[in-house]
Amino acid sequence: MADDPHRRIKIYPLKGMWGEVQAMSLIKRRQFLQFASLVLASFGLSQLEIEQQAVRYAQVLAQNTPRKRALLVGINDYVNINGNQFSPLEGAVNDTQIQKELLINLFGFQADDIRILHDQEATRENILQAFEEHLIKWAKPGDVVVFHYSGHGSQVADPDKVFGDGRVSTIVPIDSPLPGGYPKKGGKVNDITGHTLWLLMQAINTENVTFVLDSCFSGGARKGIVTVRSRPGDQELLRIKDAKIQLLASNQEQEYQKQLMSRLNLSNSDFVKLRKQGVPKGVMLAAARRDQSAIDTRFADTPVGIFTYILTRYLWQQAGAESVDQVMVSTIATTQRILQEYFPTSGIVQQPEFNIKQGSNNDKQIVYFTNRKNTPAEAVVTKVQGNQIDLFLGGIDPRSLKAFGRGATFTVVDSQGREQGQVQIESRQQLKARGRLIQATTGRAAIAAGTLLQERSRAIPNDLTLRIGLDSSLGQDIESARRALRAINKRIEPVSVNQPDINYILGRVTQKYVQQLQKLNIKKLPEVGSIALFSPAADLIPGSDGSAGERVSDAVSNRLKAKLKSLLAARLVKLTLNTTSSKLSVAAAMETVDGGAIQAEAFTVRGATVASLSRSRGQTTRSSNVQRITPGTLVRFLVQNNEPHDLYISVLLISVDGELLVLSPLPGNEDAPPIAAGQQIQVPDPDRGELYKFRIAGEPGIAEVLVIASTTPFKKAIELLQALAAESDSKRGTPVNLDQKPDEAIVSLLNDLDEGTRGAGIARVDGTSQIDTHQMAALSITFEILPS
C-alpha cells in the first residue's frame, strides 16, 4: 500500500479510424399467427401473444425502402507460412456477426442479402468474385451497398507512387503468405490493394456505398490480449544488399486492376489523379489512420475489433438516423477513451477516420445511406421457440458484459417507450444469450425475431472474481504467488495467463519492457525484476511495482493486497455504469472552481428530461470522454436531479493507481438531505458537511469519478463507511479512503441498490445483485492528469 493514500489526487481539508425478398402472402401470414397462438396455449402463455416467425415482417412489408446488400469478410485463422510470423486474430469473425445483426435488425437488410466469407472461404479469388457477383452485377442507382472487412492489413510498393511514401495499403486474404526469405528478400504477395478497392467501389452502380475497414497497415505486434491487425509489409523489409528490394502486388492483382480500369474507361493517368482525391463515391469508414494501429482484443469473454464494436454499439444506442460525421465523432472519442482506460502506457494510438467523395456532402448523409428503426436498444430477439427466446446483445457497453448473464432482464417496449413484457437471461456466451419470457405488463405484446429490447435490470454475480493471470516471468514462484493471492480474498482468482477473460497479470518487470517504456519517454521507470501488476494488454498498473529483490509472497501479501482489493472493488462498481440505459434523469459534471468552466460531463439519455449541465447554462457542450486537466487545478463536481422526486447520491473516485475514495456521502453527515426534485448540488459542499477541497495533483494518468444516483438511500454502505472512518484517523467531513475494505464497501453499495429493486416487478435470481434502470443511474466522468 502506498505511504500516502492521496498521492495521486490530493484532498485538502479546509482552513479531478478507413437480393430481393418476396413477402409471405397476408393469408399465409394470418394462418401462421393462428397456429402460433395455439402453440402458445400449450405453453400456458395465453396472456402474451408471441409472433413466432423466421421472416421479419416489419422489414419485409416496409414500403418505399431502397434495396440493400452487404458483403462481410472476417479472417481470424492466419497461419505462419514460410517462417514469417504474423499473429492469427480472434475477433474478426465476430465483427462480421456483429455487423450482420446490426444491418438486419436496425437497418432493414434481409439475411439473404448479406454474403459472409470467413477464414478459409476468404481467399483473394472468393472475395473478388463475391464482390463482382453479389454487389457490382446486382446494384442499381439508389440501392444501398455495404462492404465490411475485418482482418490483417499490410502495404506493398506502388509503381504509380500515388502517395508520398511510394506504398499502397492492402487487405490480406487468407491465401496471401509472405514470400520465402522475407524480410531479407522481397517478392510478390496475393493481397488486395487499396487501388483495387477504389476501382471496385467505383464499379458499383450506386452512390450509396459504405466501406468499413477494420484493419491497419502498421504495428503488427501482439501484446497481452491485444493484437494489431497488421501483417508485415514493404516497409519492414531488410534492404541490406539492395535498396530496391520491394514487396509487390501479385501479377494477378496488377492484371485485375487493368481490367477494372478498362471497364471503367479510365486511363492509368486518370486513375492516379482520381485516386489522390480520395474515395470515388459513398463513404469509407476506417479503424485507424494510415500510420496507426487497429486493435483486436477481448471485452470480457468476447473477442472483437475495437472499432467495429464501438461503431456498432453506438448505432444500437441511437434513437434515430444520425449523419456519418456525427457517428464518427462519437466513435473516435469513445475509442480514445477505451484505449486510455485499458492500455494506458502501451503507446497504442488508434483514431478512426472516414473519407468521402470529394465535393460531396456524404458526411452529412445518414450512416449506411438508409433509415433505421428509431428505438434505441441493448438487445434484439433472434429466435423464438415457445417461451424460450434467443437474443443478440449488440448494444451493451463493453465494460458491463459480465453483468448481462443469468438474471439480467430486458423489456419489450412499444413506440412510445411503454413496457410490454420482459425477457430474462438464463445463459450467455459472448454476445449471444438465451432467455425466457417471464412477464407481460399489458394484455397483448408481440415478440418476434427482430424485436428490439431495452435493458431493465442487470445482474452482477455475487461470486464475480478478479482473475489474475500468472505470467511465466514468475518462474518457480508461480505456485507461491497462487497461494498468496488465494489467501487475500476468495474473489481474487489466480489463473494461467493463457486463459481468456483475465483482468490483470502478475509478473516481473523485464529489461525489454523497461526499454519499451524508455522509447515512450516514460520518466518514472520500474526496476527490472520487480514484481508488479499489468493490464491484460501488458501495461504496468501505476503504483504496483516494487523493488527488484522483493519476494513474490511478500509483494502479494503485503504491498499489493490493498491494491488488489481496490481493483476488485473498481471492477464491481464499474459494472453498474448505465448512462445510456438508465430511465432516471440525472446529469453530472466536473467544473473548475475558479471561473466555473465545465471540463467534462455525463448525463443519462433515456430519462424523461435530457439536459446536460453545459447546455442548461448556454455553454459549449464538452465531451463526457477523457478531458486533460493540469495539476493544481481546483475542481468540484455537480449533480443535477431532473426527476420529480428525491434522489440519493454517492460519488466515488478511482484514482490513477486504482485506489477508491468516497467523496460523498461522508460519515458523520448522515443527516444531509438527498437531492431534491429539480435541484442541483455540488461536491464538495461545506453546507452538506463536506469539509475539503478537490485539487488535481500527483502523477499523470487516467482517473475516474463515478456518480451513482438512487431512489433509495445507501443504508448499508453508510454503516460500513462509519465503521471505516472510526478505524482510521480521517478528519470529519473529508473523503474516506477504502484501502482497508474496498471490496466490502462496494458489496454494501450493491446490496443497497439491489434492495431498491425489490417490489419493482423484476423476477429476482439468487446469487446476483439486481440493478434496475428505473431505480438507479451510474455515470462516469473520466479525466487525464497531465504531467506537472
Describe the fold and architecture:
The protein is an alpha+beta fold and 788 residues long. It folds into 4 domains: 26-54 and 378-457, Beta Barrel (Thrombin, subunit H); 67-369, Rossmann fold (3-Layer(aba) Sandwich); 466-566, Rossmann fold (3-Layer(aba) Sandwich); 576-785, no CATH class. The strands form 8 sheets. Strands 1, 27, 28, 30, 33 and 34 form a 6-stranded antiparallel beta sheet that branches. Strands 3-2-4-9-13-16 form a 6-stranded mixed beta sheet, with helices on both faces. The chain has a 6-stranded antiparallel beta barrel with strand order 17-18-21-20-19-22. The longest helix has 19 residues, at 324-342.
